[in-house]
Amino acid sequence: xxxxxxxxxxxxxxxxxxxxxxxxxxxxxxxxxxxxxxxxxxxxxxxxxxxxxxxxxxxxxxxxxxxxxxxxxxxxxxxxxxxxxxxxxxxxxxxxxxxxxxxxxxxxxxxxxxxxxxxxxxxxxxxxxxxxxxxxxxxxxxxxxxxxxxxxxxxxxxxxxxxxxxxxxxxxxxxxxxxxxxxxxxxxxxxxxxxxxxxxxxxxxxxxxxxxxxxxxxxxxxxxxxxxxxxxxxxxxxxxxxxxxxxxxxxxxxxxxxxxxxxxxxxxxxxxxxxxxxxxxxxxxxxxxxxxxxxxxxxxxxxxxxxxxxxxxxxxxxxxxxxxxxxxxxxxxxxxxxxxxxxxxxxxxxxxxxxxxxxxxxxxxxxxxxxxxxxxxxxxxxxxxxxxxxxxxxxxxxxxxxxxxxxxxxxxxxxxxxxxxxxxxxxxxxxxxxxxxxxxxxxxxxxxxxxxxxxxxxxxxxxxxxxxxxxxxxxxxxxxxxxxxxxxxxxxxxxxxxxxxxxx
Length: 504
What we know:
By secondary structure, the protein is α/β, with parallel strands linked by helices. 40% of the residues lie in helices and 16% in strands.
């Protein structure tokens, strides 16, 4: 989101809060209200739903708000459901909740019913931890403000709305049933993007634009994979601050499972500053709070272990502390039948610690510089050269991805896929994230070949898969400050492939 999106969230929150009065968010209320609801009707998520279903933006508001409210955490969900009179529990088979009381025609009555039945409503919403029941007076302060801010954030950041999307195994962005499951281990931050025409010299000035959005290599890849149709969960850490909650709301809006996101009290969510010139990335500054860290001990819990072992693929970025990465790789290395493992390179201290796990890595992905930092003793002469060095250390496949092209080296393949003609820039934030997500999507969405005894075997990427993943990077050139927002759908990648083939 850009800075104007914060203003948009406040505006939408205020509209929803005012619409709570009287009977709530009903079709009649929307058509007869004196409240200026034009900012709500102009939201892209409302417009897209209206266009897809052949209806008006006014008629689209209630079904969209109902669906997005279902994605909220339990407390936010029960508050917005009751106060907007959304009716999410009308069809619930419970004898101890009275829909007439919960969805009364009077807001004051709805608040009283919500306060009186607080615990039971949370139990129905499958809340793991139930906060103390508020009084009607205290409910009208912080709890309501947080709930409606979260709902407004989903409305503002919503991308594509379809009625058939579900949390686990449902359809995503028109791709049909989930193609497979993916667990991502990496960072989630707030990106501060500075877009300039030219990088200023010392003491000079340059005109530019600023925006701040959820980002981070882990988040970018998780969102990219979810948009392509994978069932994605993200293991990361954020602060218990406004930025951290913004990241969680964004991930939930993109249908990424956030149940394993660690929220650290009294800590600030990390910020990354990206300086982007007309041709691509020019520089990166990372500001972090040492308390926002996963620890190796946290990865031994049953929920995290299940996420790493009971999945089709695991994608690990080299952003978390090395002990965390070691723990993930060691867990996977010990499995008799492990998921496909993708590791995205980054500059880390003492990369030699990871060498004993490289034989577990199916696909190692990064730029020449990122991969070169993993073998500091041998300067890279080229992408192919550093790929060969990492192969000798045990990696099965090395993908050198930069300048919108790809070099692949494995025991089976030696590919050099040039940049697509549609690639006008040199590099943009998120392009390698799009490549990684597209590659794992191809691996999981196509059936495995049978082995010599007729049983299924692991899918191995071929030239078409690498070409498709390379095409996915081209779509990220639409980058306008929102890195994960530039991640393509499968249809968009297919279109790039089709247009390219038509030119030849």
